Predict the 3D structure of the following.
Amino acid sequence: MGEPVLTLEDVWPARPRAVIVGLNSTPTSVAAGHHHQGRLAQRQLLRLADAGLFRRPPSGGTFFERVVLDADIGLTDVVKRPTCAEKHLSPREIEIGRQAVNAELEARRVPLVVCLFSRPVMVLLGSSGRPGFQPRTTSWGARVFRMPGPFAPVDEVRDVMEDLSQGIPAVSG
């Protein structure tokens, strides 16, 4: 948006089989220099690891960049400017970010977009749908998966994450 801002660099494997999309980074994550350092985002990433999208970081670590990259998974955000709350983002910022992230995902032909929370699904598809695979795909045909909420009932989480486990694209190579 024309102003320099300290943020996190996107993680892009050479041939992504999936990309994890957040709405925007938090100041805590930027200060740590690593994506998704908040408690709720960490819970969501561990669910993805347990579903088989990638392995858990070694020794109970909280930095996921290396393990996702090793699994041909990327990390990005719709809006690059970090904030403590979504309410601090303008509709214009979100729209500019939506266009930019869609262009990146399409250019890389990402087959699976995993949204940690409902808002990125709303931004990318126009509606947030229910947790799990969304009925609509992106303009280039990628499937979109919405994570269950961090406080969703255990049975819902298990069922939704089992669907993801069965729909994960194979590792390239």
Observations:
- The chain has a mean pLDDT of 92.
- Residues 1 and 121 are 22 Å apart (CA to CA).
- The two ends are 37 Å apart (CA to CA).
- DSSP finds six helices and five strands in the chain.
